[in-house]
Amino acid sequence: MKSVRGVVVGAGVVGLSTAVCIAENLPLCSVTILSEKFSPNTTSDGAAGIVLAAEFPDILLERQRRWFKDSFDNLLAIAQSQHSPDAGVMLSSGWQIFKEVPTNRKPFWSDFVTGFRTMTDGELKRFPDHKFGQAFTTVKCECSTYLPWLEERFRKAGGWVEQRKVNSLQELSDSFDFIVNCSGLGSKQLVGDASVYPVRGQVLKVDAPWLTHFIRDGDGKTYIYPGIHSVTIGGTRQEGDWRLHVDKGDTDGILDRCSRLEPSLKKAKVLSEWVGLRPSRRNPRVEREWLQLQGRMVPVVHNYGHGGWGVTIAWGTALDALELVRQCLKEMPQQAKL
């Protein structure tokens, strides 16, 4: 008999990863995912899903290294297993190129990806506007395949799934003993976090099966990521922009910039266009608190605000959230006596 009831709010890559970690590691917990949207309608579904990272300003670098390594190792193990095609996880090699030499030529995550090195002058010749580059092999996640695979894994671990919008944490306090908030941009309303903001991203899927290596401009605004069924090209990083419709000007800009890096894209057929809002924050919020809900103290673990790095660090922050849930469960008897 499962004795503790927990709920995870949100079914993007962070919510599903967190729910799987809890359900598989805490067998005494009955875990439910509540979300207004599930795959294929989440922000994560449109993510390019390439695993590399930016540095968050106020989080210990050691913690960020752990988040990256845990996530990379988890996805690498899937990519190298029989589950790779079902999970939509694959190895991806390519180049990150810079118009100016970056201050940090060797980012904190370079030790964890495979074969990281500085590009040679010969390799850079094809990118005349760029002065510096890095070559490496990382992991790519096709989220429209990966999310349903994670959800199925969650159900196999005994998890429950319910599609409904959560308007307030108050409405959950009667049914659950702990709450894990993975609501992304929804945290602006759900927990009143004014520091969460959207960064609009527009991408195209194109048919270009001849492309096998990724190319990413270091500014993060232009990228070409070959996948299993198509090539994702992008993009935009428009802070504070809530528009969810496709912008023709952005589409033209993406095609123009990407074709300059990879001229053969002029021959590629556009299959689809997509817009999503990255749930951004100065730093991701991965912490716990006790909240008074409907007259009782309920532990709430927060895991949101990953911005454009959800796929990159989801599993690492999910393991942190699991540890925070464990701490809450240890404190629960004392809390109940208060």
TrEMBL record:
Main location: other
Enzyme superclass (EC): oxidoreductase
Keywords associated with the record: FAD, Flavoprotein, Oxidoreductase, Peroxisome
Matching Pfam families: DAO (PF01266)
Domain FAD dependent oxidoreductase: 7-319
Domain of life, source organism: Eukaryota
InterPro entries according to UniProt: D-amino_acid_oxidase_CS, DAO, FAD-dep_OxRdtase
Cofactor (UniProt): FAD
Catalysis: reaction(s): D-glutamate + O2 + H2O = 2-oxoglutarate + H2O2 + NH4(+); D-aspartate + O2 + H2O = oxaloacetate + H2O2 + NH4(+)
Annotated EC: 1.4.3.1
Location of the protein in the cell: Peroxisome matrix
Family as reported in the entry's similarity comment: Belongs to the DAMOX/DASOX family.
Function of the molecule: Selectively catalyzes the oxidative deamination of acidic amino acids. Suppresses the level of D-aspartate in the brain, an amino acid that can act as an agonist for glutamate receptors. Protects the organism from the toxicity of D-amino acids. May also function in the intestine.
Name of the protein described by the UniProt record: D-aspartate oxidase
Organism: Ataeniobius toweri
Organism phylogeny: Eukaryota, Metazoa, Chordata, Craniata, Vertebrata
